[in-house]
Design brief:
It is a single chain. With 194 residues, the chain is an alpha+beta fold. It is built from 3 helices and 5 strands. It starts with a helix and ends in a 6-residue tail after the last helix.
């Protein structure tokens, strides 16, 4: 069997009954095993967080409705253009008919320079308030991916930091044991051996 770097790493952590293994080696094996298990669980949790954010975004996409409203007062003319290059959407007074038949008024985003009496389509959220429109699918997907990725990155960073801390403490113990062994050997040495 060839002995490459991966095989050497695996041998370092696998318990094999070697009498030369120190107690710190066994603790490190348990720490690495716990890290791997928790890393897999954190990946599952990150996927669940991303999926939950995505489902919430999809629900928000479908939580409102479009209605036809009438502009009640002239919208101001736009004096600027949005960064994306699209015309600015300004809010002005509009009136629309609610599901129960009553007339409702409010402020809604409309195209610039919309004149009073002009019919416009406006988006109402689930509470019936005018908004900028439904959430876009690309925003929903991006939020789901970003939240899942952030969750995975944060949890793996925390796990790696914990593993590094455990390994540092174990190395400190190993070096202390190594120094104590050399000191004990030097004390047993006879003067004529020097």
């Amino acid at each position: 069997m060839r002995s490459g770097p991966v095989t050497m790493r695996m041998r370092r952590y696998l318990p094999d009954g070697n009498p030369l293994r120190r107690g710190t080696d066994h603790v490190e094996f348990v720490a690495v095993l716990a890290f791997l298990i928790l890393a897999v669980l954190s990946a599952v949790a990150a996927f669940a967080v991303g999926a939950a954010v995505y489902r919430s975004g999809v629900a928000e996409e479908h939580s409102g409705r479009w209605v036809t409203a009438t502009v009640t007062r002239d919208a101001p003319a736009a004096t600027w253009v949005a960064v994306e290059g699209t015309a600015a959407r300004l809010r002005t007074g509009v009136a629309w008919t609610a599901a129960d038949g009553r007339t409702v008024t409010g402020q809604a985003p409309v195209s610039s320079a919309a004149k009073a009496g002009t019919p416009v389509r406006i988006w109402l959220d689930r509470e019936g308030r005018p908004g900028d429109g439904p959430r876009s699918r690309i925003d929903t997907v991006a939020d789901g991916v970003a939240s899942g990725t952030a969750t995975a990155a944060l949890s793996l960073t925390a796990l790696l930091a914990c593993l590094a801390l455990v390994r540092r403490r174990l190395d400190h113990r190993r070096y202390a044991a190594w120094d104590a062994g050399w000191l004990a050997m030097n004390r047993r040495r006879k003067p004529e051996d020097a």
